[in-house]
TrEMBL record:
It comes from the Eukaryota. It holds the Pfam family Mob1_phocein. SMART domains: Mob1_phocein. PANTHER family: MPS ONE BINDER KINASE ACTIVATOR-LIKE MOB. The lineage of its organism: Eukaryota, Metazoa, Spiralia, Gnathifera, Rotifera. GO terms for molecular function: kinase activity. It comes from Brachionus plicatilis. This is MOB kinase activator-like 4 isoform X2.
Amino acid sequence: MTSSEMVKQEIHQGEMDEFNQPRQSSSLRRNRPGCSEKEWNNWPDEDLDEMESTLAVQQYIQQLIKNNPNDVDKILQLPDQQDEGVWKYEHVRQFCLDLNKITVLLQQECSPSICSQMTATEQWIFLCAAHKNPKECSAIDYTRHTLDGAACLLNSSRYFPSRVNLKDSSVQKLGSVCRRIYRIFSHAYFHHRSIYDSFEKETSLCKRFTKFVTKHELMTSDSLIVPIEEQVNQTQPKTENVVLDDKEITQIEVEQTDVKQSDESEA
């Protein structure tokens, strides 16, 4: 064997050794090409303070969800010494990721011809802020536009340049994101109940989201119209609201059949 052949063999062997190293290494949380479904994301659990990656908070949240998505309180529990702003930011990112899953399911029956408007109850019609001038979109297009817009904002190097330290002004933008993506839950609940119930039973996503925004005061209780477990339903007068730049202005009490339009101008 020539020296060049020996060098090639050593390089090839090194590549194979690196490829064949144990997939459950605590220092390398990566799904390798060709791994089986059983091996997918199948690495040992780690405490948050043991994770050295800049994506540690995201990894920790996903680890909790993977272990038991229905244990909402544990998933939302702020770890000791963890920055609350980063904790909220990473949870909102995860909500957007998880909402893509129910969006795929909604496409089975939420077509533009069936759901030509983004509505919840008869009192709510939402205008899509993805356009130069807010206008009506079909429900599925509104959903896509909203998630796309949230992804652009949450990945913006201008507003969120770091995933370790965040300015208060950046954290304040999370409320607007939450109000908009919540409309996906409300539309699914009131218009595609079977899909919503099946997805919620498996993931407890709306329950987790509702408890999260309530705990951190990112949404008002009267705007959380999808009932969840442990929620006390109280009958209140219906009011007509006009939403301008995400600020609700109560105008007059209306009857059950009146329609409320939400006109947002904030991009």
